Each structure stands twice: as structure tokens, then as C-alpha cells.
Amino acid sequence: MNDLDRLTKEIQGQANPRQALILQRFFKTGEGQYGAGDRFLGLKVPLQRTLARKYAHLDRKSVQHLLNSQYHEFRLIALMILIEQYEAASDLKAKGRIVDFYLKNTKRINNWDLVDLSVYKILGDYLWFVPAKKLILKRLAVSKNLWERRLAMIATYAFIQKGRSEETILIAKKLLNDSHDLMHKAVGWMLREMGKRVSEKTLTDFLDEYGAKMPRTALRYAIERLSPVQKKHYLGR
After folding, report:
1. Residues of the chain with pLDDT under 70
2. Are 109 and 141 found together in one domain?
């Protein structure tokens, strides 16, 4: 038995049908919903992290096999393994190969938790060190695929963590008029984090210019950490 088979056996051995049903409802897997068709085994995230660390040495072919799975947990563990491998990579060239592999599999990063857990730790971090490739964010931001647009927005969290706001503002402007509620939440969340970690004034300057045009959900997320007076001001515009 090889390591991929061992991991598969461990994942299947921890399946919890009752928890799987809860997760399928939570991640909106019904017909017509954003996660339509996604299937769950019912593993909790801490266990998946443990398995990812245990099998972080898996080769790229095995990781691809995990990403191709119909089960959400297999794909999440694959992304966790990629994070482990990216962080352990010895240089930017090695990290770049992981980023290229990640970008080839964006269609498999197809629910909000898969995006949010991985993109800023892999793509976002890489673009900080290789700014010449930041056009990738613009390309993803105009994609017809919801998850690729979310990848673009959440990737900018890597820049926020390092004290920069330019990338977040750029992508937020591109996605302000997105039709999907999940994008409204993503834009508002990143703007809120920008105000928290970079500069509240940068956030309020953005809201002064765009707040009246923003979807209500995005605005509510963005102003979450502002004072009651500020919240009332922006909600009333």
C-alpha cells in the first residue's frame, strides 16, 4: 500500500455520515446553490490539518488525485498539503512551481472555505515576492467563475498582513458590482481587514468614495469595526 492509499483509507475511516449531512447543508450543495453537487464525508477541519501534515510529502501526482476527488475533504486536504509544501519550499523557483500547479487547479478550488484557507498563503504570498506577476489577480477578478473571482479578492489578504492596501483596493474596485452575495462578503471582509491591519483612514477614504455604491452586504462587512457614529453615517448614505 502506498502513501496515497494509506491517506485515502484514513480519510474514509473517519467518515461521519451525520456530520456530512450538516456540512452539505452548510456549504449549500443543493441544486441551484453555489456548492451544488459537492459531497462530504464529515471530517472536521483539525483532523484534516493533522492528516495534511502527516502526508505533506506526497508527490504532485498524488495531490492531483486528491484534488480530483468528488469529496470536499480530499480537496481540502490536498490544498493543506500544498500549503505545507509551499512553506517548506527552499526558494522562489520551487514556490513558483507550486503556484503554477495551484492555478492549473482553480476549477477544483470550488467552495469558499477551499479558497479562503489556501489562496493568500500560496498565491498571495508568492505575488508579494514576485510583483511582476500581479496581473494574475486582475485576470482572476474578471473570470466568469465565482471561485476564481473570490481567489483574486482573498489573495490580497497576504498584502494586508504585510501592511499594504493597494492590491486590495484595486481588486475591490473591480468586484464592487459583482452580482454574487459571496463576493459581496469577500470584498467587505477584505476591506474591513484593510482598515484593521493597514489603516482605518484608508478604509474610510475608500468608503467616502464608493460606500454609497456598494452592495449592502459588502458595506456592512466593511464597517464592522468602525465606531457606531461612523457606521450610522455610511449606512445612511
Report:
1. none
2. no
* Long-range contacts of the stretch 26-33 (C-beta < 8 A, 24+): 27/72, 27/111, 27/112, 27/113
DSSP category for residue 122 = I
Q: What is the domain range of residue 211?
A: 132-237
Q: Are residues 78 and 151 in the same domain?
A: no
Q: Which of these, 162, 218, 161, 228, lies nearest to 207 by C-alpha position?
A: 218
Helix (H, G, I), strand (E, B) or coil at 126: helix
CA distance 29 to 18: 15
What CATH number does the domain containing 143 carry?
1.25.10.90
Closest to 162 measured CA to CA, from 194, 133, 140, 136: 194
- Supply the pLDDT for residue 78: 98
Say if residue 234 is in the same domain as residue 143.
Answer: yes
The alpha carbon of 146 is separated from its chain's Cα centroid by a whole number of angstroms, namely 11
For position 1, what pLDDT does the model report?
85
Q: State the total domains in the chain.
A: 2
Is the whole-model pTM more than 0.85? yes
Other C-beta atoms closer than 10 Å to the C-beta of 59 total 12
Q: Read off the pLDDT of residues 23-73 as tens digits, 9 standing for 90 and up.
A: 999 999 999 999 999 999 999 999 999 999 999 999 999 999 999 999 999
Sign of the Cα torsion 36, 104, 3, 76 reads: negative
Cα 51 from chain centroid (whole Å): 20
End position of a domain, from candidates 118, 142, 164: 118
Mapping DSSP onto H, E and C, the string for 53-90 reads HHCCCCCHHHHHHHHCCCEHHHHHHHHHHHHHHHHHCC
